[in-house]
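Example (one chain per record):
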Amino acid sequence: MTGRRSFLSTGILLLAVLWPLALAWAAGQRGVAVLASGPERAYRAPVERFTDGLAGRPVAVFDLEGDVRTAPEVMERLLASRPALILALGAKAATVAKTWTSTRPGMPVVFAMVLDWQRYNLLADQSNICGIATEAAMGTQLANILLFKPEARRAGLVVSRTFSGEAMA
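Predicted structure:
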């Protein structure tokens, strides 16, 4: 139930934050491209809500199928569609979109559904990319462990000084 609520919350957040932006960018004939990291169900609901919120504006969905090696073919098709905006869902999609738009500063990229997004340096050296942080607080993560394993009495925590500083503060 917690996962389903999280997906619904992410979809509503995407719709609320991106809908006005996407309407403005898609006001012309150019549409919006959605780049998904893979075919997971987690990406379907936000894509549907986002598309519904655009009220008939053109939206093209491109899928990396969980494999960044498909990026050249997928991104060539995506860029050929000349989208006004790229919505990248998941870490693979966000990283690929950032890389492929590094020489296209006029093509805005919005990423979402990327856990620990700082680890990927998505905002470094580019001004055309922004995103919606998807983070789970340590307390929430521990509560989820207890939901699946109520008899658990110990939990290990693996941290990185480079990427876990804020989470441990």
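Caption: The chain has a mean pLDDT of 81.
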